[in-house]
Design brief:
The structure holds 2 protein chains of 2 kinds. Chain A is mostly beta strands. Chain A has 3 helices and 24 strands. Classes of the chains: A mainly beta, B mainly alpha.
Chain lengths: 327, 518
C-alpha cells in the first residue's frame, strides 16, 4: 500500500513532479483518453475523457479533487441535447458554467459545474459563426470565448451565448495562417495563443487577431511536433508538445526554459486497483524494461495551471493527469 | 526496377485533399488530366453499343488483385500510365508518402494502442481503406501474410503487438522472404502465439518449430512426399531455444499497455550440434531459416500461396501434399523466380502480374473475394471513411460478420479461402453491405458515378452497362445483365427518377454472384 513519494525535477529544474490522478476506466474513478481539463470555481478538477471510438460509454467529464478524490461524473454519448460524442475541450466561463466543445456535432454545450445541462449552440459550416470541428477553447478576460475552428483553419470569437464576434485566419503556412489549429489560450492582457497544429508552431495574436509572434518550440529539429494543449500562467507559456511526448515551458519571448517529460507514480485509484489485483502488480513489477516508459508522458494533450502554481497535464494515452509544482 | 519508372504522387500527400488525379509517373509518360474521369467516361456516347475497354478491364483486374479495386478516376490515371508502369508503381509502395498518422491519431484517440480487439480491427481496416489509393499493394501483401502467418488476438491479447506484426508485413512483405522469416521469428506476437517463450534449452516446446516448417515455409509435403521429418521439427525447435520476450503483460489497467519486446536469452539457448534436413552444425534459428529458404519445397509453398491469393483459388493448404497445382507451369515459373531473385517476393509478383496466366481472361473473376476485399473494396469505391468520422467500428466489424475476423484467425492455419468464404449467413452480409453502400448517393464516390451518368441521359441499357463499367469493368452473365436492363427499363417507363434507377442498378450489380468475385 505504497504510493510513490519521490518528487523528481523537470529537465531544467524549475518544476517538480508532484502527484498523479488517474486509472484507465470506462466509468467511476478513472479516465479513458483524457483530452481536456479545467479547474472549476469550486476548486474541483474536471477532466474530459474522449475514449477510443469503440467505447462510447467511457466518454464523460469526471469531477475530482486535486488530491485525487473522486466526486462524480456526467456523461451521455450521443447527439441529443446534453450529450456529446467527440469531446475535445472544456473551459469554465466567468458565469461559473462549464463549456464543452464537441467536434462531431460542431457545437458548444454548457453545463453547470455539477453537470446539469443548460443548453447548446453552434452549427456545422464554414460561414462566419459556423464551425467545422471546434477544438481548443479559452475564455478571454472580457468574457468572450475564443475557439479553434479547426477544419475551417481559423480562430473565432463568440459571446458566451454563441453570437459570433470575430474570426481570423485561413488555411496555409504563412504567418497568421493555420493548418488545423487545436489548442487555444488567452493571457490576462487578452492576447490569444494558438497551437497551429500541423504547422508545428504556436502563434500569438492581439485580441483583434493581429499577429504578434510565432514560436517554434526549440532549435532546428527539436521544435514542436504537433503541439496542442496550451496554458499561460504568469510569464510562462505551457505547450503540450504532443508528438514529442513532452510539455515545453516557454518564457514570454517564446524561448524554451524547461521541459516536463512525465514522472508518474501510482495514483490513489491505481493503488486501490492493484491492491485488489496483486497478480497484475506482480506482472507490472516484472516488466523491468518498461519501467521508465510507464512513467513518461504518452501524448500529453491538455494543460492547465492553478493559481498556486500546480501544473496539471492530461496524459492522454496513459489515462491520467500528472501534476507538477512550480518551484 | 527493370527499366520502369515508378510513378509518384505529385507534391505532398495530404489525406485532407488527396485526389487520385494527382498521381503522376516520374517519366511524364502520362500527364495529369490527360484522361480525366469525365473525358474517359464520355467516350461512351449515348446510344453507342457498350464495349469493354480491354486495357481498362485489365487494369481493373490488376487493381482488384494487387489492391482493393480502383475508382473510375484512379483507373483513368492508371490507364494513362500503362500497365507495366502501374505494376511498378504498385510494387514500390514505400516510394509513396505514408498515411497522415497525425490526423488519424488526433481523431481516433487510442489509435496507436487499440486496447481491445475491436479497436485493433478498426485500426487495421481503416488503414487498408486509407492506403487503398496510395499504397494498395502494401496493404494487400500485409493481408496476404497475415493469412499465411496467421496469428490471433484470441491468445495474444496484446493488440499493439499484433498490429506491429501486421506492420512488419507491410514493411517486409514485398522484400526478401528469408529476412521476413528472420523478423517473424523475433516478432513478440508470434513468439507468444506459438509458445516459443516456453521453448527452453532443457525442455523444448516444438510449437513454433513445427509451424515454421508446416505452415510458414515448406509445407508438410509436395508431389506426394513429405518435406521433413519429426526429427527435423525437434532440431528446429532446439535452434530457437532462448528466443523469447520480455514484459508479456496484457493488463490495460492502470495506465494502458506497454510494449512486448524480443529478447535472446543466451543462457537458455541450446548451442549444441543439430542435424536439420540432412545438414549438421551448431545451428541457431537464423541458420534454420537459411536452410529452409534453400529448399525447393519452400519455393513451391510460397508460389502456391501467392498464386492462390493473387491469381486463382486453389485447394486448401492441407491438400497441397497430394494435390498438384492447378497451373503447374505458372507455379514452376514462380518457383524459378524465387530462386533467381534470391527469394524476393517483389520479383515473384512482378513476374506474376505481367504474366499471361495472370492477365488471361480465364483469370478474371476467378477468385471469391475475401471479406476484407469486399469491405475495403466497397469502401474505397464509394469513398467513405477516407477521413476520420464516427462509426467506423461498425463497418470494420462487417469483416467479422462475413467470416473473416481479422487479427483473430480461426487457427494457425489461417482462413480457408475460395468458396469456403461463402455460407448463407456470410452471403447475406456481403450482399447487404455492398448494396447498402453502392446505393447510397451520400457517399462521394457514388455521387460522382451518379452525376456522370445523369450527364449522359442514359437509357436502361446505358445505365446498366455504364454502371458495370464504373464498378470496375464487371462482367455479368448475359441473362443477369438482361434482367437488370429489363428492370431499369420498367422503372424508367413507369416514370421513376433516373437517379433512383441508377442507384438501384448499382445496388443490384452489387447483389450479383459475379460481384462476389475478384
Amino acid at each position: 500500500m505504497t504510493t510513490v513519494v519521490e518528487h523528481p525535477a523537470s529537465v531544467a529544474g524549475l518544476y517538480q513532479y508532484h502527484d498523479v490522478i488517474g486509472l484507465l476506466s470506462a466509468g467511476g474513478p478513472g479516465f479513458s483518453g483524457p483530452v481536456s481539463l479545467a479547474l472549476g470555481p469550486d476548486g474541483l478538477l474536471h477532466v474530459a475523457s474522449r475514449a477510443n471510438p469503440n467505447q462510447p460509454e467511457a466518454v464523460r467529464v469526471t469531477r475530482c479533487t486535486v488530491q485525487g478524490d473522486y466526486v462524480g461524473e456526467f456523461c451521455g454519448w450521443g447527439d441529443a441535447p446534453g450529450q456529446f460524442i467527440w469531446v475535445t475541450a472544456i473551459a469554465f466561463g466567468p458565469d461559473g458554467n462549464l463549456y464543452l466543445a464537441d467536434e462531431n456535432t460542431h457545437r458548444i454545450s454548457t453545463f453547470t459545474a455539477e453537470g446539469e445541462f443548460l443548453g447548446h449552440w453552434g452549427e456545422f459550416g464554414s460561414d462566419f459563426g459556423q464551425m467545422n470541428r471546434p477544438s481548443g477553447m479559452a475564455f478571454a478576460p472580457d468574457g468572450t470565448l475564443v475557439i479553434a475552428d479547426s477544419w475551417n483553419h481559423r480562430i473565432q470569437r463568440f459571446t458566451m451565448d454563441g453570437s459570433p464576434l470575430h474570426a481570423w485566419g485561413a488555411h496555409g503556412k504563412g504567418s497568421g495562417q493555420f493548418d488545423m489549429p487545436w489548442g487555444v489560450a488567452v493571457d490576462p492582457d487578452g492576447a490569444v495563443y494558438v497551437s497551429d497544429w500541423r504547422n508545428d508552431r504556436v502563434q500569438k495574436f492581439e485580441a483583434d487577431g493581429r499577429l504578434l509572434a510565432e514560436f517554434d518550440g526549440g532549435s532546428a529539429g527539436d521544435g514542436f511536433s504537433r503541439p496542442n494543449g496550451l496554458a499561460v500562467h504568469g510569464d510562462h507559456i505551457y505547450v503540450c508538445d504532443w508528438w514529442n511526448d513532452r510539455v515545453q515551458v516557454l518564457d514570454a519571448d517564446g524561448q524554451v526554459i524547461d521541459t516536463l517529460i512525465g514522472h508518474s507514480g501510482t495514483s490513489k485509484w491505481a493503488r486501490t486497483f492493484l491492491d485488489a489485483n496483486p497478480d497484475i502488480e506482480e506482472k507490472l513489477n516484472n516488466a523491468t524494461q518498461n519501467i521508465e516508459l510507464k512513467r513518461r508522458f504518452y501524448r500529453p494533450t491538455a494543460v492547465t495551471v492553478s493559481d498556486n502554481g500546480l501544473v496539471f497535464v492530461a496524459d492522454c494515452y496513459r489515462h491520467r493527469v500528472q501534476i507538477y509544482r512550480k518551484l | 526496377m527493370d527499366g520502369y519508372a515508378v510513378p509518384v504522387i505529385a507534391g505532398r500527400y495530404d489525406m485532407m485533399t488527396f485526389d487520385p488525379a494527382n498521381l503522376e509517373p516520374t517519366d511524364g509518360r502520362a500527364k495529369r488530366g490527360e484522361r480525366s474521369f469525365s473525358s474517359q467516361y464520355l467516350r461512351i456516347l449515348p446510344g453507342e453499343e457498350m464495349h469493354v475497354d480491354s486495357q481498362r478491364a485489365l487494369m481493373a483486374h490488376l487493381l482488384r488483385r494487387a489492391g482493393f479495386g480502383a475508382t473510375p478516376a484512379e483507373l483513368d490515371t492508371y490507364c494513362g500510365w500503362g500497365y507495366d508502369a502501374t505494376v511498378e508503381w504498385l510494387l514500390y509502395p514505400e516510394a509513396q508518402p505514408a498515411l497522415d498518422e497525425d490526423i488519424i491519431e488526433r481523431y481516433y484517440i487510442d489509435w496507436k494502442e487499440s486496447r481491445n480487439i475491436e479497436g485493433a480491427l478498426t485500426e487495421t481496416v481503416y488503414r487498408m481503406n486509407c492506403n487503398a489509393s496510395a499504397r494498395p499493394l502494401q496493404e494487400k501483401i500485409a493481408l496476404f501474410w497475415h493469412g499465411v502467418f496467421a496469428t490471433g488476438l484470441a491468445k495474444v491479447l496484446h493488440e499493439k503487438t499484433m498490429l506491429n506484426q501486421v506492420d512488419l508485413f507491410r514493411q517486409q512483405g514485398l522484400g526478401n522472404f528469408e529476412e521476413l522469416l528472420r523478423r517473424l521469428a523475433r516478432d513478440p506476437a508470434m513468439i507468444f502465439w506459438l509458445d516459443n517463450n516456453f521453448n527452453h534449452k532443457n525442455a523444448i516446446n516444438e510449437n513454433w518449430g513445427r509451424e515454421l516448417l508446416e505452415l510458414f515455409s515448406m509445407g508438410v509435403g509436395m508431389d506426394g512426399h513429405a518435406n521433413y521429418t519429426e526429427d527435423d521439427v525437434q532440431e528446429a525447435a532446439r535452434a530457437f531455444t532462448g528466443w523469447t520476450i520480455d514484459d508479456d503483460n496484457v493488463a490495460s489497467i492502470p495506465y494502458g499497455k506497454t510494449p512486448w519486446l524480443f529478447r535472446y536469452d543466451l543462457e537458455d539457448h541450446d548451442a549444441g550440434l543439430k542435424t536439420f534436413l540432412g545438414e549438421t552444425g551448431n545451428f541457431d534459428g537464423d541458420d534454420i531459416i537459411e536452410i529452409i529458404c534453400r529448399q525447393p519445397s519452400t519455393a513451391r509453398f510460397v508460389s502456391r500461396h501467392l498464386y492462390n491469393f493473387f491469381v486463382a483459388d486453389d485447394v486448401q493448404v492441407p491438400a497441397w501434399q497430394t494435390t498438384p497445382p492447378a497451373d503447374p507451369a505458372a507455379i514452376a515459373a514462380l518457383e524459378a523466380e524465387y530462386f533467381r531473385s534470391g527469394y524476393d517476393i517483389r520479383s515473384m509478383l512482378r513476374l506474376m502480374f505481367t504474366s499471361d496466366f495472370f492477365k488471361s481472361e480465364s483469370a478474371r473473376f476467378a477468385r471469391v473475394k475475401s471479406p476484407a476485399e469486399v469491405v475495403v473494396g466497397t469502401l474505397h469505391l464509394v469513398g467513405d471513411f477516407k477521413l476520420p468520422k464516427v462509426g467506423f467500428m461498425a463497418t470494420a466489424l462487417e469483416c467479422r460478420y462475413m467470416n473473416q475476423d481479422l487479427l483473430n484467425p480461426p487457427s494457425v492455419e489461417g482462413w480457408h479461402t475460395g468458396k469456403e468464404w461463402i455460407d448463407s449467413g456470410s452471403m447475406v452480409e456481403r450482399i447487404n453491405f455492398v448494396a447498402d453502400n453502392l446505393g447510397d448517393a451520400n457517399h462521394p464516390g457514388v455521387r460522382t458515378m451518379v452525376d456522370a451518368l445523369l450527364d449522359r441521359h442514359p437509357d436502361a441499357t446505358g445505365i446498366v452497362d455504364d454502371c458495370l463499367e464504373l464498378l470496375g469493368s464487371v462482367v455479368l452473365r448475359e441473362d443477369n445483365r438482361n434482367a437488370l436492363v429489363a428492370q431499369a427499363e420498367q422503372a424508367l417507363d413507369a416514370g421513376a427518377d433516373t437517379e433512383e434507377v441508377i442507384l438501384n442498378a448499382l445496388r443490384m450489380i452489387g447483389s450479383t454472384r459475379e460481384y462476389q468475385f475478384a
